[in-house]
Amino acid sequence: YGIQVNKLLMGSIFSVFITFLSIKKYQEKDPLFWNTWAQHTLKNALTLQKLNQNTAKNLILFLGDGMGIPTVTAARILKGQLSGQSGEETQLEMDKFPFVALSKTYNTNAQVADSAGTATAYLCGVKANEGTVGVSAAAVRSQCNTTQGNEVTSILRWAKEAGKSVGIVTTTRVNHATPSAAYAHCVDRDWFSDGEMPAEAVQAGCKDIARQLFENIPNIDVIMGGGRKYMFPKNQSDVEYPGDKKHFGTRKDGRNLVEEWTNRMKNKKAQYVWNKRELLSVNPNNVDYILGLFEPGDLPYNLERNTETDPSLTEMVELAIKILRKNPRGFYLLVEGGRIDHGHHEGKAKQALHEAVEMDRAIGRAGLITSIYDTMTVVTADHSHMFNFGGYTPRGNTIFGLAPMLSDVDQKPFTAILYGNGPGFKVINGLRENVSTLDYQIIHLIYFSFPFSLSTLPLSPEGNNYQAQSAVPLRMETHGGEDVAVFAKGPMAHLLHGVHEQNYIPHVMAYAACIGQNRDHCMSSGGASSLSPALPSLAALLTLTRLLC
Protein backbone atom coordinates (compact mmCIF):
# COMPACT_ATOMS: atom_id res chain seq x y z
CA TYR A 1 0.00 0.00 0.00
CA GLY A 2 2.83 2.38 0.93
CA ILE A 3 4.58 1.67 -2.36
CA GLN A 4 1.36 2.43 -4.28
CA VAL A 5 0.95 5.74 -2.42
CA ASN A 6 4.57 6.66 -3.15
CA LYS A 7 4.08 5.86 -6.82
CA LEU A 8 0.95 8.03 -6.94
CA LEU A 9 2.76 10.86 -5.15
CA MET A 10 5.79 10.67 -7.40
CA GLY A 11 3.54 10.52 -10.43
CA SER A 12 1.74 13.68 -9.30
CA ILE A 13 5.01 15.50 -8.69
CA PHE A 14 6.24 14.36 -12.09
CA SER A 15 3.06 15.70 -13.75
CA VAL A 16 3.41 19.07 -12.03
CA PHE A 17 7.06 19.27 -13.03
CA ILE A 18 6.32 18.44 -16.67
CA THR A 19 3.57 21.08 -16.65
CA PHE A 20 6.03 23.64 -15.26
CA LEU A 21 8.59 22.82 -17.94
CA SER A 22 5.94 22.98 -20.65
CA ILE A 23 4.72 26.41 -19.50
CA LYS A 24 8.28 27.72 -19.33
CA LYS A 25 9.10 26.30 -22.74
CA TYR A 26 5.95 27.93 -24.15
CA GLN A 27 6.83 31.27 -22.53
CA GLU A 28 10.29 31.27 -24.05
CA LYS A 29 8.79 31.00 -27.55
CA ASP A 30 7.03 34.33 -27.03
CA PRO A 31 9.24 37.42 -27.70
CA LEU A 32 7.30 39.21 -24.96
CA PHE A 33 8.94 36.90 -22.37
CA TRP A 34 12.46 37.92 -23.35
CA ASN A 35 11.60 41.60 -23.91
CA THR A 36 9.93 41.86 -20.50
CA TRP A 37 12.85 40.17 -18.77
CA ALA A 38 15.36 42.44 -20.52
CA GLN A 39 13.38 45.59 -19.65
CA HIS A 40 13.24 44.53 -16.01
CA THR A 41 17.00 44.00 -16.04
CA LEU A 42 17.47 47.42 -17.67
CA LYS A 43 15.44 49.15 -14.93
CA ASN A 44 17.58 47.46 -12.29
CA ALA A 45 20.75 48.55 -14.09
CA LEU A 46 19.57 52.16 -14.17
CA THR A 47 19.30 52.17 -10.38
CA LEU A 48 23.06 51.55 -10.25
CA GLN A 49 23.72 55.03 -11.66
CA LYS A 50 23.58 56.26 -8.07
CA LEU A 51 26.79 54.81 -6.72
CA ASN A 52 27.24 53.45 -3.22
CA GLN A 53 30.03 55.67 -1.88
CA ASN A 54 29.58 54.76 1.78
CA THR A 55 32.54 53.82 3.91
CA ALA A 56 32.80 50.04 4.11
CA LYS A 57 32.67 49.07 7.76
CA ASN A 58 33.05 45.41 6.80
CA LEU A 59 35.01 43.66 4.05
CA ILE A 60 34.47 40.09 2.85
CA LEU A 61 36.54 38.37 0.17
CA PHE A 62 35.24 35.05 -1.16
CA LEU A 63 38.00 33.27 -3.06
CA GLY A 64 37.04 30.29 -5.19
CA ASP A 65 40.38 28.56 -5.69
CA GLY A 66 40.57 27.55 -9.35
CA MET A 67 37.10 28.94 -10.07
CA GLY A 68 37.58 30.07 -13.66
CA ILE A 69 34.70 31.38 -15.75
CA PRO A 70 33.83 27.95 -17.24
CA THR A 71 33.58 26.66 -13.65
CA VAL A 72 31.24 29.53 -12.72
CA THR A 73 28.98 28.77 -15.70
CA ALA A 74 28.93 25.02 -15.06
CA ALA A 75 28.25 25.59 -11.33
CA ARG A 76 25.32 27.83 -12.26
CA ILE A 77 23.82 25.06 -14.39
CA LEU A 78 24.43 22.48 -11.65
CA LYS A 79 22.77 24.71 -9.05
CA GLY A 80 19.66 24.94 -11.21
CA GLN A 81 19.61 21.24 -11.97
CA LEU A 82 19.91 20.39 -8.27
CA SER A 83 16.62 22.22 -7.80
CA GLY A 84 14.97 20.43 -10.72
CA GLN A 85 15.39 23.10 -13.38
CA SER A 86 17.22 23.02 -16.69
CA GLY A 87 19.94 25.15 -15.11
CA GLU A 88 21.08 27.64 -17.72
CA GLU A 89 18.68 30.38 -16.60
CA THR A 90 19.59 29.98 -12.91
CA GLN A 91 21.32 32.76 -11.01
CA LEU A 92 24.20 32.11 -8.68
CA GLU A 93 24.41 34.42 -5.69
CA MET A 94 27.52 35.96 -7.22
CA ASP A 95 25.60 36.55 -10.46
CA LYS A 96 23.40 39.00 -8.56
CA PHE A 97 26.33 41.27 -7.71
CA PRO A 98 26.00 44.53 -9.69
CA PHE A 99 29.64 45.01 -10.69
CA VAL A 100 31.90 42.59 -12.55
CA ALA A 101 35.51 42.89 -13.68
CA LEU A 102 38.23 40.66 -15.05
CA SER A 103 41.47 39.95 -13.20
CA LYS A 104 44.80 39.17 -14.87
CA THR A 105 46.27 36.32 -12.86
CA TYR A 106 49.88 35.86 -14.04
CA ASN A 107 52.70 35.73 -11.48
CA THR A 108 55.84 37.82 -11.88
CA ASN A 109 57.70 34.74 -13.11
CA ALA A 110 54.83 32.65 -14.50
CA GLN A 111 52.39 33.11 -17.36
CA VAL A 112 50.09 30.51 -15.79
CA ALA A 113 49.92 31.24 -12.08
CA ASP A 114 49.89 29.20 -8.90
CA SER A 115 47.79 29.86 -5.79
CA ALA A 116 50.61 31.27 -3.67
CA GLY A 117 51.80 34.09 -5.91
CA THR A 118 48.22 35.02 -6.73
CA ALA A 119 47.25 35.08 -3.05
CA THR A 120 50.05 37.55 -2.43
CA ALA A 121 48.56 39.70 -5.20
CA TYR A 122 44.91 39.83 -4.09
CA LEU A 123 45.75 39.98 -0.37
CA CYS A 124 48.96 42.01 -0.18
CA GLY A 125 48.52 44.20 -3.23
CA VAL A 126 51.75 43.25 -5.02
CA LYS A 127 52.43 40.59 -7.63
CA ALA A 128 54.94 37.92 -6.65
CA ASN A 129 56.72 34.77 -7.80
CA GLU A 130 54.93 31.46 -7.92
CA GLY A 131 55.26 29.32 -4.81
CA THR A 132 55.89 32.26 -2.44
CA VAL A 133 53.48 33.92 0.01
CA GLY A 134 53.62 37.33 1.65
CA VAL A 135 56.92 38.31 0.03
CA SER A 136 57.73 40.45 -3.00
CA ALA A 137 59.09 39.24 -6.32
CA ALA A 138 62.60 39.91 -4.99
CA ALA A 139 62.25 36.74 -2.91
CA VAL A 140 63.21 33.46 -4.58
CA ARG A 141 61.26 30.27 -3.96
CA SER A 142 62.84 27.93 -1.39
CA GLN A 143 65.77 30.29 -0.74
CA CYS A 144 65.38 31.19 2.92
CA ASN A 145 67.95 34.00 2.81
CA THR A 146 65.78 35.98 0.36
CA THR A 147 62.94 36.36 2.87
CA GLN A 148 64.18 39.13 5.15
CA GLY A 149 63.59 42.60 3.79
CA ASN A 150 61.16 41.38 1.13
CA GLU A 151 58.10 40.88 3.37
CA VAL A 152 54.84 42.49 2.26
CA THR A 153 51.78 42.91 4.50
CA SER A 154 48.20 41.91 3.76
CA ILE A 155 44.84 43.63 3.93
CA LEU A 156 44.02 41.37 6.88
CA ARG A 157 46.86 43.01 8.80
CA TRP A 158 45.79 46.48 7.62
CA ALA A 159 42.30 45.79 8.95
CA LYS A 160 43.60 44.47 12.27
CA GLU A 161 45.82 47.53 12.72
CA ALA A 162 42.77 49.72 12.06
CA GLY A 163 40.98 48.10 14.99
CA LYS A 164 38.78 45.76 13.00
CA SER A 165 38.21 42.11 13.81
CA VAL A 166 39.66 39.71 11.23
CA GLY A 167 38.99 36.14 10.21
CA ILE A 168 40.03 33.31 7.91
CA VAL A 169 37.69 30.49 6.85
CA THR A 170 38.80 27.82 4.38
CA THR A 171 37.95 24.29 3.26
CA THR A 172 41.68 23.56 2.90
CA ARG A 173 44.40 23.64 5.54
CA VAL A 174 44.55 26.99 7.33
CA ASN A 175 48.24 27.08 6.39
CA HIS A 176 47.61 26.36 2.69
CA ALA A 177 48.62 28.80 -0.05
CA THR A 178 45.55 31.04 -0.08
CA PRO A 179 45.06 31.71 3.65
CA SER A 180 48.78 31.79 4.43
CA ALA A 181 49.37 34.93 2.34
CA ALA A 182 47.06 36.76 4.76
CA TYR A 183 49.52 36.38 7.66
CA ALA A 184 52.76 34.64 6.62
CA HIS A 185 55.97 35.68 4.87
CA CYS A 186 57.40 32.50 3.40
CA VAL A 187 59.50 31.72 0.35
CA ASP A 188 57.96 28.26 0.02
CA ARG A 189 54.24 27.54 0.19
CA ASP A 190 54.97 23.92 1.14
CA TRP A 191 56.67 24.75 4.44
CA PHE A 192 53.47 23.91 6.35
CA SER A 193 55.36 23.05 9.54
CA ASP A 194 59.03 22.71 10.39
CA GLY A 195 58.60 19.02 9.55
CA GLU A 196 58.26 19.95 5.87
CA MET A 197 61.21 22.38 5.86
CA PRO A 198 64.82 21.61 4.91
CA ALA A 199 67.08 21.64 7.96
CA GLU A 200 69.21 24.47 6.58
CA ALA A 201 66.14 26.73 6.27
CA VAL A 202 65.18 26.08 9.89
CA GLN A 203 68.76 26.71 11.02
CA ALA A 204 68.83 29.94 9.03
CA GLY A 205 65.87 31.21 11.03
CA CYS A 206 63.02 30.85 8.56
CA LYS A 207 59.68 30.09 10.21
CA ASP A 208 57.16 27.52 9.06
CA ILE A 209 53.71 28.76 8.03
CA ALA A 210 51.74 27.16 10.90
CA ARG A 211 53.96 28.91 13.42
CA GLN A 212 53.52 32.24 11.64
CA LEU A 213 49.74 31.87 11.85
CA PHE A 214 49.96 32.35 15.61
CA GLU A 215 52.98 34.66 15.86
CA ASN A 216 52.86 37.22 13.04
CA ILE A 217 49.48 38.89 13.62
CA PRO A 218 48.50 38.71 17.30
CA ASN A 219 45.02 37.40 18.00
CA ILE A 220 43.42 36.73 14.63
CA ASP A 221 39.81 36.61 15.79
CA VAL A 222 38.50 33.73 13.66
CA ILE A 223 40.51 30.83 12.21
CA MET A 224 38.59 27.91 10.71
CA GLY A 225 39.62 25.13 8.36
CA GLY A 226 41.85 22.07 8.34
CA GLY A 227 45.54 21.49 8.99
CA ARG A 228 45.42 20.12 12.53
CA LYS A 229 48.44 17.84 12.17
CA TYR A 230 50.81 20.75 11.49
CA MET A 231 50.05 22.21 14.92
CA PHE A 232 51.11 19.20 17.00
CA PRO A 233 54.43 17.48 17.84
CA LYS A 234 55.70 14.79 15.52
CA ASN A 235 54.08 11.40 16.07
CA GLN A 236 51.37 12.77 18.40
CA SER A 237 48.15 10.95 17.49
CA ASP A 238 45.19 12.86 16.14
CA VAL A 239 42.09 13.36 18.28
CA GLU A 240 39.76 12.17 15.50
CA TYR A 241 41.90 9.47 13.88
CA PRO A 242 44.08 8.20 16.77
CA GLY A 243 45.19 5.01 15.02
CA ASP A 244 46.06 6.51 11.63
CA LYS A 245 49.74 7.41 11.43
CA LYS A 246 49.34 9.60 8.35
CA HIS A 247 47.35 12.01 10.51
CA PHE A 248 49.91 12.19 13.34
CA GLY A 249 51.53 15.51 14.23
CA THR A 250 54.39 16.72 12.04
CA ARG A 251 56.23 19.30 14.17
CA LYS A 252 59.89 18.53 14.86
CA ASP A 253 60.26 21.37 17.37
CA GLY A 254 57.93 19.58 19.80
CA ARG A 255 55.60 22.56 20.07
CA ASN A 256 51.83 22.17 20.52
CA LEU A 257 50.53 25.32 18.84
CA VAL A 258 46.90 24.66 19.79
CA GLU A 259 47.81 24.35 23.46
CA GLU A 260 49.92 27.50 23.25
CA TRP A 261 46.99 29.38 21.68
CA THR A 262 44.60 28.09 24.33
CA ASN A 263 46.91 29.15 27.16
CA ARG A 264 47.54 32.57 25.64
CA MET A 265 43.80 33.20 25.19
CA LYS A 266 42.62 31.83 28.54
CA ASN A 267 41.76 35.29 29.86
CA LYS A 268 39.81 36.15 26.72
CA LYS A 269 36.50 34.82 25.43
CA ALA A 270 38.20 32.21 23.25
CA GLN A 271 37.31 28.67 22.23
CA TYR A 272 39.03 25.85 20.33
CA VAL A 273 36.78 23.39 18.43
CA TRP A 274 37.54 20.43 16.19
CA ASN A 275 34.17 19.07 15.03
CA LYS A 276 30.77 20.27 13.86
CA ARG A 277 29.00 19.55 17.13
CA GLU A 278 31.42 21.77 19.04
CA LEU A 279 31.22 24.45 16.36
CA LEU A 280 27.43 24.65 16.36
CA SER A 281 27.36 24.74 20.17
CA VAL A 282 29.32 28.01 20.16
CA ASN A 283 27.27 31.04 21.18
CA PRO A 284 28.74 33.91 19.11
CA ASN A 285 27.63 36.41 21.75
CA ASN A 286 29.91 34.74 24.30
CA VAL A 287 32.95 34.10 22.09
CA ASP A 288 35.30 36.71 20.64
CA TYR A 289 38.02 34.37 19.36
CA ILE A 290 37.66 30.95 17.80
CA LEU A 291 40.17 28.42 16.47
CA GLY A 292 38.50 25.62 14.55
CA LEU A 293 40.65 22.84 13.08
CA PHE A 294 38.32 20.20 11.72
CA GLU A 295 40.70 17.81 9.93
CA PRO A 296 44.40 16.85 10.08
CA GLY A 297 44.69 18.01 6.45
CA ASP A 298 42.12 19.51 4.11
CA LEU A 299 38.42 19.27 4.85
CA PRO A 300 36.58 16.54 2.90
CA TYR A 301 34.81 17.33 -0.34
CA ASN A 302 31.28 18.55 0.31
CA LEU A 303 29.87 15.49 -1.48
CA GLU A 304 31.79 13.23 0.91
CA ARG A 305 31.36 15.31 4.05
CA ASN A 306 29.98 13.59 7.14
CA THR A 307 27.14 15.98 7.89
CA GLU A 308 27.11 14.90 11.54
CA THR A 309 30.77 15.64 12.29
CA ASP A 310 32.11 17.92 9.53
CA PRO A 311 30.88 21.53 9.20
CA SER A 312 29.99 22.95 5.81
CA LEU A 313 31.57 26.11 4.47
CA THR A 314 28.22 27.87 4.92
CA GLU A 315 28.05 26.89 8.60
CA MET A 316 31.58 28.12 9.24
CA VAL A 317 30.98 31.41 7.43
CA GLU A 318 27.76 32.12 9.31
CA LEU A 319 29.38 31.69 12.72
CA ALA A 320 32.46 33.64 11.66
CA ILE A 321 30.40 36.67 10.66
CA LYS A 322 28.29 36.52 13.82
CA ILE A 323 31.46 36.61 15.92
CA LEU A 324 33.24 39.27 13.88
CA ARG A 325 30.35 41.69 13.43
CA LYS A 326 30.22 42.43 17.16
CA ASN A 327 33.17 44.78 16.72
CA PRO A 328 31.76 48.33 16.29
CA ARG A 329 34.70 49.11 13.98
CA GLY A 330 33.75 46.28 11.64
CA PHE A 331 35.69 43.33 10.26
CA TYR A 332 37.66 41.77 7.41
CA LEU A 333 36.91 38.15 6.49
CA LEU A 334 38.71 35.94 3.98
CA VAL A 335 36.67 32.92 2.86
CA GLU A 336 38.20 30.28 0.59
CA GLY A 337 36.34 27.59 -1.30
CA GLY A 338 39.65 25.83 -1.67
CA ARG A 339 38.69 22.38 -2.85
CA ILE A 340 37.25 23.55 -6.16
CA ASP A 341 40.88 23.57 -7.18
CA HIS A 342 41.56 20.08 -5.82
CA GLY A 343 38.61 18.59 -7.67
CA HIS A 344 39.86 19.99 -10.95
CA HIS A 345 43.46 18.87 -10.35
CA GLU A 346 42.13 15.34 -9.88
CA GLY A 347 39.98 15.61 -13.00
CA LYS A 348 36.87 15.16 -10.84
CA ALA A 349 34.55 17.80 -12.22
CA LYS A 350 31.62 16.70 -10.11
CA GLN A 351 33.54 17.28 -6.89
CA ALA A 352 34.82 20.65 -8.10
CA LEU A 353 31.41 21.94 -9.19
CA HIS A 354 29.66 20.84 -6.00
CA GLU A 355 32.36 22.72 -4.07
CA ALA A 356 31.59 25.81 -6.15
CA VAL A 357 27.86 25.48 -5.47
CA GLU A 358 28.53 25.19 -1.73
CA MET A 359 30.67 28.34 -1.81
CA ASP A 360 27.84 30.14 -3.59
CA ARG A 361 25.51 28.98 -0.84
CA ALA A 362 27.89 30.52 1.70
CA ILE A 363 27.90 33.77 -0.29
CA GLY A 364 24.11 33.83 -0.07
CA ARG A 365 24.14 33.21 3.67
CA ALA A 366 26.67 36.00 4.19
CA GLY A 367 24.46 38.34 2.23
CA LEU A 368 21.51 37.62 4.50
CA ILE A 369 23.37 38.58 7.68
CA THR A 370 25.23 41.63 6.36
CA SER A 371 24.14 44.81 4.58
CA ILE A 372 25.22 46.20 1.19
CA TYR A 373 25.17 49.66 2.79
CA ASP A 374 28.18 49.02 5.01
CA THR A 375 29.67 45.73 3.76
CA MET A 376 31.78 45.38 0.63
CA THR A 377 31.75 41.81 -0.66
CA VAL A 378 34.05 40.63 -3.43
CA VAL A 379 33.99 37.19 -5.07
CA THR A 380 36.82 36.10 -7.32
CA ALA A 381 39.28 33.32 -8.16
CA ASP A 382 43.04 33.09 -8.00
CA HIS A 383 43.34 31.33 -11.35
CA SER A 384 41.43 29.09 -13.73
CA HIS A 385 41.83 25.45 -14.81
CA MET A 386 42.03 23.43 -18.01
CA PHE A 387 38.33 22.69 -17.59
CA ASN A 388 35.55 23.34 -20.07
CA PHE A 389 32.28 21.99 -21.39
CA GLY A 390 30.68 21.97 -24.83
CA GLY A 391 29.64 19.66 -27.64
CA TYR A 392 26.38 21.35 -28.71
CA THR A 393 24.51 19.94 -25.75
CA PRO A 394 20.75 20.65 -25.78
CA ARG A 395 19.03 22.88 -23.26
CA GLY A 396 18.74 21.17 -19.88
CA ASN A 397 21.36 18.53 -20.63
CA THR A 398 22.72 17.30 -17.32
CA ILE A 399 26.02 19.11 -16.85
CA PHE A 400 27.79 15.80 -16.18
CA GLY A 401 26.20 14.07 -19.18
CA LEU A 402 27.14 13.12 -22.71
CA ALA A 403 27.17 15.37 -25.73
CA PRO A 404 24.31 14.54 -28.15
CA MET A 405 26.60 13.22 -30.87
CA LEU A 406 29.34 10.73 -31.55
CA SER A 407 32.82 11.75 -32.55
CA ASP A 408 33.04 11.84 -36.34
CA VAL A 409 36.59 10.52 -36.03
CA ASP A 410 36.45 7.52 -33.68
CA GLN A 411 32.64 7.09 -33.65
CA LYS A 412 32.49 7.12 -29.84
CA PRO A 413 30.46 9.26 -27.45
CA PHE A 414 32.05 11.95 -25.30
CA THR A 415 31.04 13.88 -22.21
CA ALA A 416 30.22 17.57 -22.39
CA ILE A 417 32.82 18.24 -19.69
CA LEU A 418 36.41 17.74 -20.80
CA TYR A 419 39.87 18.74 -19.57
CA GLY A 420 42.76 19.95 -21.70
CA ASN A 421 45.12 17.81 -19.64
CA GLY A 422 45.03 15.61 -16.57
CA PRO A 423 44.49 12.09 -15.27
CA GLY A 424 41.38 11.42 -17.38
CA PHE A 425 43.44 10.51 -20.45
CA LYS A 426 42.73 6.82 -21.04
CA VAL A 427 43.58 4.66 -24.04
CA ILE A 428 42.32 1.07 -24.39
CA ASN A 429 43.82 -1.11 -27.11
CA GLY A 430 45.25 2.00 -28.71
CA LEU A 431 41.89 3.77 -28.85
CA ARG A 432 40.12 6.39 -26.77
CA GLU A 433 38.09 4.91 -23.93
CA ASN A 434 34.37 4.52 -24.57
CA VAL A 435 32.66 6.66 -21.94
CA SER A 436 29.22 5.20 -22.56
CA THR A 437 29.28 3.38 -19.21
CA LEU A 438 26.47 2.22 -16.95
CA ASP A 439 26.77 5.32 -14.78
CA TYR A 440 26.11 7.58 -17.72
CA GLN A 441 23.25 5.48 -19.03
CA ILE A 442 21.60 5.67 -15.58
CA ILE A 443 22.08 9.44 -15.43
CA HIS A 444 20.56 10.01 -18.85
CA LEU A 445 17.68 7.58 -18.63
CA ILE A 446 16.59 8.72 -15.18
CA TYR A 447 17.18 12.43 -15.60
CA PHE A 448 15.35 12.77 -18.90
CA SER A 449 12.57 10.33 -18.05
CA PHE A 450 12.04 11.55 -14.51
CA PRO A 451 13.70 14.98 -14.16
CA PHE A 452 13.86 15.58 -10.44
CA SER A 453 16.76 16.97 -8.46
CA LEU A 454 20.09 15.46 -9.50
CA SER A 455 20.81 14.88 -5.82
CA THR A 456 18.19 12.10 -5.85
CA LEU A 457 19.83 10.15 -8.66
CA PRO A 458 21.20 6.73 -7.67
CA LEU A 459 24.79 7.52 -8.57
CA SER A 460 27.61 5.44 -7.17
CA PRO A 461 30.67 6.90 -5.38
CA GLU A 462 32.54 6.19 -8.61
CA GLY A 463 30.18 8.64 -10.30
CA ASN A 464 31.19 11.37 -7.85
CA ASN A 465 34.84 10.67 -8.58
CA TYR A 466 34.60 10.07 -12.31
CA GLN A 467 37.61 11.58 -14.07
CA ALA A 468 36.53 13.38 -17.21
CA GLN A 469 38.56 12.66 -20.33
CA SER A 470 41.56 14.85 -21.05
CA ALA A 471 43.54 15.55 -24.21
CA VAL A 472 47.00 15.23 -22.63
CA PRO A 473 47.93 12.65 -19.96
CA LEU A 474 49.12 14.11 -16.66
CA ARG A 475 48.92 12.72 -13.13
CA MET A 476 47.46 16.06 -12.03
CA GLU A 477 45.56 18.50 -14.24
CA THR A 478 47.04 22.00 -14.44
CA HIS A 479 45.85 25.54 -13.92
CA GLY A 480 44.58 27.65 -16.80
CA GLY A 481 46.04 31.01 -17.72
CA GLU A 482 43.00 33.07 -18.74
CA ASP A 483 41.56 36.00 -16.81
CA VAL A 484 39.10 35.27 -13.99
CA ALA A 485 35.95 37.13 -12.98
CA VAL A 486 35.65 39.55 -10.07
CA PHE A 487 32.13 40.12 -8.68
CA ALA A 488 31.57 43.04 -6.30
CA LYS A 489 28.78 44.64 -4.28
CA GLY A 490 28.55 47.18 -1.48
CA PRO A 491 30.46 50.41 -0.84
CA MET A 492 32.79 51.44 -3.68
CA ALA A 493 32.13 48.19 -5.57
CA HIS A 494 31.95 50.24 -8.79
CA LEU A 495 35.74 50.63 -8.61
CA LEU A 496 35.98 47.00 -9.70
CA HIS A 497 35.22 47.30 -13.40
CA GLY A 498 36.94 46.52 -16.69
CA VAL A 499 40.17 44.53 -16.77
CA HIS A 500 42.63 44.89 -13.90
CA GLU A 501 45.83 43.43 -12.56
CA GLN A 502 45.00 41.01 -9.75
CA ASN A 503 46.93 43.02 -7.16
CA TYR A 504 44.44 45.91 -7.64
CA ILE A 505 41.78 44.07 -5.60
CA PRO A 506 43.04 44.71 -2.03
CA HIS A 507 43.77 48.34 -2.88
CA VAL A 508 40.11 48.86 -3.82
CA MET A 509 38.88 47.07 -0.71
CA ALA A 510 41.23 49.07 1.53
CA TYR A 511 40.13 52.30 -0.14
CA ALA A 512 36.48 51.45 0.51
CA ALA A 513 37.18 50.80 4.20
CA CYS A 514 39.69 53.63 4.75
CA ILE A 515 42.46 51.32 5.94
CA GLY A 516 46.08 50.67 5.03
CA GLN A 517 47.63 53.29 2.77
CA ASN A 518 44.20 54.46 1.58
CA ARG A 519 43.16 56.86 4.33
CA ASP A 520 43.84 60.39 3.12
CA HIS A 521 40.67 60.56 1.01
CA CYS A 522 38.57 59.63 4.05
CA MET A 523 39.22 62.89 5.87
CA SER A 524 38.15 66.33 4.71
CA SER A 525 40.06 69.48 5.65
CA GLY A 526 37.83 69.81 8.70
CA GLY A 527 38.74 66.33 9.91
CA ALA A 528 35.41 64.72 9.01
CA SER A 529 35.09 61.70 6.78
CA SER A 530 34.60 62.66 3.13
CA LEU A 531 33.07 59.27 2.36
CA SER A 532 29.42 58.88 3.22
CA PRO A 533 28.62 56.91 6.37
CA ALA A 534 26.35 53.92 5.90
CA LEU A 535 23.33 55.79 7.23
CA PRO A 536 20.50 57.55 5.37
CA SER A 537 21.06 61.25 4.88
CA LEU A 538 18.63 63.87 6.18
CA ALA A 539 17.57 64.66 2.62
CA ALA A 540 16.76 61.01 1.97
CA LEU A 541 14.72 60.82 5.17
CA LEU A 542 12.79 63.97 4.23
CA THR A 543 12.11 62.57 0.76
CA LEU A 544 10.86 59.31 2.26
CA THR A 545 8.63 61.27 4.67
CA ARG A 546 7.05 63.20 1.80
CA LEU A 547 6.40 59.97 -0.13
CA LEU A 548 4.77 58.33 2.88
CA CYS A 549 2.59 61.38 3.50
Automatic annotation (TrEMBL):
Tagged with keyword Metal-binding: yes
Co-factor note (free text): Binds 1 Mg(2+) ion. Binds 2 Zn(2+) ions.
Ranges in a coiled coil: none
InterPro entries assigned: Alkaline_phosphatase, Alkaline_phosphatase_AS, Alkaline_phosphatase_core_sf
Annotated positions binding Mg(2+): 65, 176, 178, 336
GO cellular component: a single term: side of membrane
Enzyme class: hydrolase
Cofactors: Mg(2+); Zn(2+)
Highest taxon above the source species: Eukaryota
Annotated signal sequence range: none
Entry's EC annotation: 3.1.3.1
Catalytic residues identified in the record: 115
Entry keywords, A to Z: Cell membrane, Glycoprotein, GPI-anchor, Hydrolase, Lipoprotein, Magnesium, Membrane, Metal-binding, Zinc
Membrane topology: Lipid-anchor; GPI-anchor
Localization per record: Cell membrane
Substrates-to-products reaction catalysed: a phosphate monoester + H2O = an alcohol + phosphate
Residues annotated to bind Zn(2+): 65, 341, 345, 382-383, 479
GO molecular function term, any single one: alkaline phosphatase activity
One of the Pfam families matching this protein, by short name: Alk_phosphatase
UniProt-listed PANTHER family: ALKALINE PHOSPHATASE
UniProt record similarity statement: Belongs to the alkaline phosphatase family.
Subunit structure: Homodimer.
UniProt-recorded name of the protein: Alkaline phosphatase
Gene: ALPL
